Amino acid sequence: MAEKGPTTLADLSLEVRSKNAGPFWVTMELFLRDAEAYRIAADEAFLDERTIARLYGVDPDGVQIFRIPALNVVKISFPRPVSQASLRDRDVHSGQHHVPLAALPVPSV
User: Fold this and answer.
1) For residue 78, which of 105, 51, 104 has the smallest C-alpha distance?
2) Can you give the residue ranges of the DUF4387 domain (predicted)?
3) pLDDT one-digit tens code per residue, 13-47
4) pLDDT at 80
5) Phi/psi of residue 91, each to 5°?
């Protein structure tokens, strides 16, 4: 039997998605499965602007993180590396940006 890897944000979530937030921004949302999963994912020592900057190659000063405990949701926004639909844009709808976030290993649960 194959050994399971580390627990990731995807494992703690009902859904992890990304979407276009206009021609210059990307927004990602973590819909956590319960309050305990939210506590882990929303911990600023784990998920902060520097972590997002490292995952996406963006300036940490441009990253915005919104923690919404009543909904067990963490929302993350940052400027798109290139404007939407420009010649170098490889994901017009930002539909694939969530993958590195979903695969992020969480501290021991």
Assistant:
1) 51
2) 9-103
3) 999 998 877 777 889 999 999 999 999 999 999 99
4) 77
5) -150, 80
Torsion of the alpha carbons at 39, 45, 48 and 54, rounded to the nearest 10: -130
> Is the pLDDT reported for residue 71 higher than 60?
yes
What is the CA angle 38-60-67, rounded to 5?
Answer: 20
Q: The pTM is what? A: 0.86
Within 10 A of 51 (CB to CB), how many other CB atoms are there? 18
β 25-32/64-68 pair status: unpaired
Contact 26, 97 (CB under 8 A): yes
Residue 9 parent element (H or E): helix 9-12
pLDDT digits (tens, 9 = 90+) for 85-96: 555 655 655 557
DSSP code string of 73-97: EEEEEEE-SS-TTSTT-S-TT-TTT
